[in-house]
Structures are given as structure tokens and as C-alpha cells.
Amino acid sequence: MIEVRILGSSAGGGFPQWNCTCTNCSRLRAGTLHGKPRSQAQVAVGLGGDRWCLLNASPDLRFQIEATADLQPQAKADDEIRSSPIAAVVLTSGDLDNVLGLLTLREFQPLEIYATRSIRQIITSENTFFRMLQRVNPQAAWHDMKPGEAFELGFSQESVARCELVPLTGEYPEYVSQETRATLSPEEAVVALKVEVVSSGRRMIYCPALPGISDDLKAQFEACDLLLLDGTFWSDDELTRIALSQRTSRDMGHLPISGPRGSLEVLSKIQRPKKAYIHINNTNPILDEESAEFMSLTAAGWGVAEDGMQFSL
Ligand SMILES: [Zn+2]
After folding, report:
1. How far apart are the CA of 94 and the centre of ligand 1, in A?
2. Which residue in 24, 47, 72, 243 is a FRET match for 107, CA 20 to 30 A apart?
3. How far does residue 288's CA lie from ligand 1's centre (Å)?
4. Three-class SS string for 70-111?
5. Structure pTM?
């Protein structure tokens, strides 16, 4: 069995967001919203033996580690002042919301980082700050993973989890130059992560950005036991309607929850997995637990992830 901890459940910006006066953020600050504040999306997976793997590295990571006793350092010997149960990070995209937390982990701590070759390349070569992770040896050890190819996470004699990056149809982040973009593999831009417990075969899929659902992806969702899915926006026009953006939810690489061909409708028949929406934008009405939208998700068997939530796989 492995433990899955939700350390953060909101989309980039958090909830409330520092510069936002949308209905949700204003009501949360005023104490009139029946809902909870959320830090930016971050999941940790327990691999046994006090070893943990982070799924992405959020800008709120330092605070999230301090809020989670199991992720804090435990000195093991008199001469070992610095240590961490965090052994690895798996990246699902190069978005700042997923990688800025790596800089929080820069204090000369050995760390295994698993990502596609393209994501590794844009992080380490386009952003010189990240060289702070390569100052000593051992420090960050990058592993280039091909989508569809299995890799194992363990850190003891036996592997605990078998993982696989599932290619999605997303885009590279805006900070990547056109020149570099032309050299990168399109299927390595945004991936979901499948984690299978070696001892039981139970499976989780973590998919904080879901551009669309192919038949193959739907079959993979149907076959898993825990699905943590992109819940960024409720509706396709959520930001355009309040003039916050010219881009729809789909334009931004996030299939909306509601509406025709939204994730709620497309996945309405899947029965097997326990399922929860995560990576929820502060404008999303499901953050209000008295809203019709929140209640319709609950009625459809979906949970809404919140910070501190735990699952066993
Ligand atoms: Zn807001």
C-alpha cells in the first residue's frame, strides 16, 4: 500500500490569489464563503521506509513541507545535520506552477528528478537559475523518461511503485522560445502520471492538466483505482466571461468540467476509480461548497480535492 497526500489542491495563484477580487476570492477573504483556502497543487506519494516522492514541485512547497510532519527532516546521526525524506520528484510539465518548487529544494540535497527529456531540457537549459540544483555531486540527478515507458520508484532493495508518463496533447509553457520549441517533441510537453503499486497492482493516475480525453486515455482512467483529475475550470468561458482572459479553458489546455464534452460528461460512466478534481482555479464555483456546481459533482461521485486530504492506494 502506498499513501497519497494532497499537499495543495488549487491551480496556479492559489486560493485566494494575491491580486484577485473575483467572487470566490472576495468572499473567502470576507469569511462569507462556505469553502476552504487552498495552496497550489502538490501531491506526495509515500514509498515506505520514510521515503517520499513529490508529484511536481509547487511554488508553495516550502510551506507545504512544513505543514506535513512526514516530509520534514529527521536527523539520523550526530554528524548528519541535513536530511530529507523527499527522495524524488516526477514532473508532468514544465509550467512554473509545477517546477518553481524545485528551487526550494536547492540546498545541496540529493534528489532524483524524473521528467521527459524535453521538460528537462527547457528547465535546465532555458532557465539558468536551475543550475543551483547542479552545484555539487550528488545533487539533482535527472532521469529522462519516455512517455509510455515504465520506470520504477523504490529506494530500497525492492521497487514500490511502477510509473509511466502518459502523453497528452498539451503545449509547452510560454517562457519557452519559438526556437527551442521547434526542437522539442510535442508529446513530451504535458503528461499525466500513472503510478502502480507493485505489490497489489492498484493504480493511480495524476492528471492536473487535461487538454482532452482520447478513447485510449478514457480506458486508462476506467482501469485505475484513484483518479486525480484537472478541475481547473468549471466552464469553458469562465475567464472570458469575467474579462480576465481572452482565452477559453480549452485554449489554456484545460478541458472544463461542465458543458458538452466536458470531463464530467465524458467520464460520467466510469465506475471503478475513486475520483477527485484537483488543480482548481480560484474562479471555479466548485470552491463554494454550497454551490449547485459543488453539489452536482458530489452527486456524480466526484470529490473536490482540498489541502491535507489523504488516499491509500
Ligand atoms: Zn479569484
Report:
1. 24
2. 47
3. 12
4. HHCCCCCCCCCCCCCCEEEEECCECCHHHHHHHHHHCCCCCE
5. 0.96
